[in-house]
Design goal:
Organism (chain B): Ancylobacter radicis
Radius of gyration of chain A: 16 Å
Number of strands of chain B: 9
CATH class of the largest domain in chain B: Mainly Beta
Number of strands of chain A: 8
Number of helices of chain A: 0
CATH architecture of the largest domain in chain B: Sandwich
Radius of gyration of chain B: 23 Å
Largest sheet of chain A: 5 strands, mixed
Structural class of chain B: alpha+beta
Shape of chain B: elongated
Helix content of chain B: 10-25%
Number of domains of chain B: 2
Distance between the termini of chain B: 23 Å
CATH class of chain A: Mainly Beta
Strand content of chain B: 35-45%
Keywords (chain B): Membrane, Transmembrane, Transmembrane helix
Shape of chain A: elongated
Domain Ig-like SoxY (chain B): 50-156
Protein name (chain B): SoxY-related AACIE arm protein
Strand content of chain A: over 45%
Transmembrane segments (chain B): 20-38
Strand order of the largest sheet of chain A: 2-8-7-4-5
Oligomer: heterodimer
CATH topology of the largest domain in chain B: Immunoglobulin-like
CATH topology of chain A: Immunoglobulin-like
CATH architecture of chain A: Sandwich
Chain lengths: 106, 161
């Protein structure tokens, strides 16, 4: 797995609803496709995505092959305290990739 | 190609070819029926998520473009009407499709700290079909919204040649 791209506002007021966006470069190979030589391309997908805020899990997603390549997800959070927003993706081979962003809540 | 070929003294392999052909057709029929069995219907997939609980249409807004040129990346937005408080919030949201090789698309778990039950993602659609979003609320009720999509370029089944 390679690079992840996350969008978290740098600052927010306490109680604001903030938008979080996260995307990761990943082929999300479905396992249904044939390669040029007629051999099935083995399945390789990201199955789990977790977002944590201040160490606590705030959003979780389970992906299936019907999620596009370079899976993108956007959701909301209530800005409650300054801290780290962490992101972690796990694929079906058990490989994980993570990213994080800091937010300052005033 | 493991079919035994029966050669007559003249080196004719007609019988072998016929056997291979028949075997091939048999395998194809078998494979098709296995795939058809493996994929649950939309209703079965939703029932698997809700555990058989009734699903009511409403409170969920599933937004999809009605006409999609490329089924490999279809933007989807799911909005659920919910105050998102500790007492009343959305617990889970699931997306299912009608005609892809697999019925599941994604399952999201959220809670009161999300403030708003709105999720956007990008999905693959193999063909023109119905997509359904089902939301599980904290009171144990299930709500849903359906959308029909026309897809002109399919995902999932194209090959790379």
């Amino acid at each position: 797995m390679t690079k992840a791209l996350v969008s978290v506002p740098k600052t927010a007021r306490r109680g604001d609803i903030i938008d979080i966006r996260a995307m990761i470069a990943h082929p999300m190979e479905t396992g249904y496709r044939m390669g040029p030589n007629g051999v099935e391309i083995p399945r390789r997908i990201i199955t789990r995505f977790v977002c944590t805020y201040g160490g606590e899990e705030v959003f979780f997603a389970e992906f299936f092959p019907a999620v596009s390549a370079n899976p993108f997800v956007s959701f909301s959070l209530i800005a409650s305290a300054s801290g780290t927003v962490g992101f972690e993706w796990t694929d079906d081979q058990g490989q994980t990739e993570s990213a994080s962003a800091e937010i300052v809540v005033t | 190609m493991t079919e035994p070929t029966t050669r007559d003294p003249l080196g004719n392999t007609a019988l072998g070819r016929r056997a291979v052909l028949a075997g091939g057709i048999g395998l194809l029929v078998l494979a098709l029926s296995v795939r058809a069995l493996a994929r649950p219907s939309l209703q079965q997939a939703v029932a698997g998520f809700t555990g058989g609980a009734p699903v009511t249409a409403g409170r969920v807004k599933l937004t999809l473009p009605p006409l999609v040129e490329n089924g490999n990346a279809v933007g989807v937005t799911i909005d659920v009407e919910s105050p998102m408080t500790a007492q009343s919030h959305v617990r889970r949201i699931a997306l299912f499709n009608e005609k892809n090789p697999q019925a599941d698309i994604a399952v999201f778990r959220l809670g009161p700290h999300n403030g708003r039950a709105r999720i956007a993602t990008r999905i693959r659609l193999a063909t023109s079909q119905t997509v359904i979003a089902v939301a599980e609320l904290s009171d144990g009720t299930y709500w849903s919204s359906e959308a029909n999509v026309i897809v002109t370029l399919a995902a999932c089944i194209e090959d790379l040649t």
